[in-house]
Structures are given as C-alpha cells and as structure tokens.
Design brief:
- By secondary structure, this protein is an alpha+beta fold.
- The protein folds into three domains: about 1-35 and about 200-240, no CATH class; about 40-190, no CATH class; about 255-345, Ubiquitin-like (UB roll), CATH 3.10.20.30.
- The protein has nine helices and 13 strands.
- Bound molecules: FE2/S2 (inorganic) cluster.
C-alpha cells in the first residue's frame, strides 16, 4: 500500500501541474488577440501579378535541359531528376519551378530549382532576392537587420523541414520573415507575440521538443501517468472503504467523549458521531487538530492520544513510530468513535 500511495502522490503532482498549465494556457487562448498570436501584424499580401508574354516563353524541356547542366548550387540540394515542372513568377516575371523531391505537404521535405521562363537561366534565391521577397510582404516600420540562411530548422515554424532564409526586421516586435530557400515561397511571419503564444501552445500540447506534433511521447507518457493516478486512487479508495472511512451518517449514534489536555487534565467534553472520523468530529465541535493532507492519512500531523488498545490502521503504522503506537498515539483522521472514552488533545 505504501508504494501505491507513493505512486499516487507523485502522479497527482505531475497531473496537477499539467492541469494547471492547461487551465492557464487555455484561458490565455480564450482572451488572446488571434492576429497578434499569429505574428501577422505587419504581414501584407504580395500584390505582384504574373505578366506573361507567351511568345517569349521557352519550352519547359529547355528549362529541364538547363537544369541538367546546373551544378548543384549552394542553395539547392536538388538532384537532376525532376518530378514536376510548373509556371510561377517572381515579382511578376515568369519562372519555371522544377520540383525534384515532393513531400505530401509544402512544409515537408521538398526540393526545388528555378529557371527564367524566357531564357532558361537558373535562378537562385540568394540573400538579396530573399530580402526582396520578404520585404514585399512586410508593412512594418523596421529596416532589415540581418538575413540568415537556416539550413536545418526554423525555430519559429518547427514543422518546416526545408532550408529557409530568415529576414529579421528592426521593429518593436522583432519581426522575422521566412522565405523557403528553394522556391521563394513565403513560409510566414513571426514576432515576439507569436513566440510567446507558441510557448503557451508548446506547454498546452506538451510539445516540449517543439516538433509541432500533438502525438508526442510526452503526452503518451502523461496518459500512462494519469492512468496510474486513477488506478492507485481507485485501489486506495477501496482500501479506505474497508477501513470504514466511508460511512453513511444517516443512522449514526452520538456519544459524549471526554477531552483531556496534554497533561491529561480534563478540559471538557464533546458529542461525537460514531460514523464520522475523530478529526472531522472534533472540527465540527470547533476543536481544530492540525492537518495538512485533509484527512488522507498521509501527512501524520493530526496526532491525538487514545488508549494504547485503540486499533491501528496501515496509515498509522506508516506515520507513527512503534514507541508512539504503544503509548497510544493515533491519527485522528483514521480513528472512529468505537469504544473510545477520552481523547487527549496534544496541541
Ligand atoms: S490529517 Fe493528515 S494524517 Fe490525518
């Protein structure tokens, strides 16, 4: 039973903490400004439209040909195989977007290269072009502070699996704009408001590894801890039931019991109910015995002195020494009226 109680105690701390996090972060999600939480205060739509002169367009196969001649560029991890080719544009100028590797979603691992749709010349999204693409979607007051190529991961967009340009602006929100390095796609805007909301989302969904994934190992582990909390609580409840902690007071009897102080001098008497434990019974009579666990039998602070013959419960074996038990010390939350004639109040 000691192990059951220990598991229950630690599981309740973990579950309780996470419930507290759920409540506070859930409350924040209810009251937060959703636009701020998305980090899009300074985001505008790029209004460039493709200006297409069909007569100047080269055949897609020419673009493929020039791609074959392309050495692997610094920014493209593409192989020479192409799974699809589509017509797109950069600032209105048509380009062929060659897809070398296609993930199920845009943020999955993809690999692209680009060619001018009129000349077939390879286009690389370099720092300068990335900055121009980012600034076309930014309406804030900040100037560009830095432009960095992130090869592996984008902290502000943990689901993003492709290398990206990070363009940082010197505004009051520390806005960062992310451009996919292979295709020039706008991944998104982020700023301090979004970062704060992301922390709360991380805590709320227990996504401590910032994987952008709800089905994390932490949440599975938490489900098991909660199961343990439930099972141990159930076992403990049954045990308490057998110890007589849950009794109907409907047909109870009352009896007068004498109270003694710690020097064993009479200080009065109280009427106690035989279906209520002594801690609760004394409290009802305005006699307050110290209690930290609220009657759970785990804190050991509700000590009283009875006759040494009074029955001893498991909780008392755990919380009181052999010497104390022999002297008649007991936990008031574990004891019932039974044949008790007097109670010595220790505090
Ligand atoms: S109130 Fe905590 S052990 Fe009795």
């Amino acid at each position: 039973m000691t192990l059951i109680k220990k598991i229950h105690k630690w599981a309740s701390i973990i579950v309780g903490l996470q419930v507290l996090i759920w409540l506070s972060s859930g409350f924040y999600f209810n009251v937060m400004d959703h636009k701020k939480a998305k980090g899009t205060q300074y985001r505008v739509t790029n209004t460039y439209k493709m200006i297409l002169e069909s007569s100047k367009l080269i055949e897609p196969k020419q673009a493929l040909e020039s791609n074959r001649l392309l050495e692997k560029s610094e920014f493209s991890k593409s192989s020479n195989s192409v799974v699809s080719i589509s017509l797109s544009h950069l600032f209105g100028q048509p380009v062929y977007l060659l897809t070398h590797e296609k993930g199920l979603y845009r943020h999955f691992k993809n690999s692209y290269s680009m060619a001018d749709a009129y000349t077939g010349k390879q286009i690389t999204i370099d720092a300068e072009l990335a900055e121009k693409l980012a600034s076309a979607t930014y309406s804030g007051p900040g100037k560009v502070k830095s432009v960095t190529l992130l090869e592996k991961s984008v902290d502000d967009f943990p689901k993003e699996k492709n290398s990206a340009w990070q363009i940082n602006y010197a505004d009051e929100l520390n806005t960062s704009v992310y451009i996919e390095a292979g295709s020039g796609r706008l991944i998104g805007h982020s700023n301090d408001d979004k970062r704060f909301a992301d922390i709360l989302f991380m805590l709320h969904f227990m996504d401590y590894a910032s994987e952008g994934n709800f089905n994390s190992i932490q949440i599975i582990l938490f489900a098991f801890i909660t199961l343990w909390l439930t099972l141990t609580g159930f076992i403990w409840t049954i045990k308490l039931g057998f110890e007589g902690q849950y009794q109907l007071t409907l047909f109870s009897n009352k009896r007068i019991v004498q109270l003694l102080d710690k020097d064993h001098q009479p200080i009065g008497s109280v009427s106690l109910n035989d279906k209520t434990n002594l801690l609760d019974g004394l409290t009802k009579n305005q006699i307050y015995i110290p209690s930290v666990c609220g009657g759970g039998g785990t804190c050991g602070s509700c000590r009283i002195l009875l006759s040494p013959q009074a029955k001893i419960t498991d909780a008392e074996y755990e919380k009181l020494s052999k010497f104390q038990l022999e002297k008649g010390y007991r936990l008031s939350c574990q004891q019932f009226l039974a044949d008790i004639e007097s109670i010595t109040i220790l505090n």
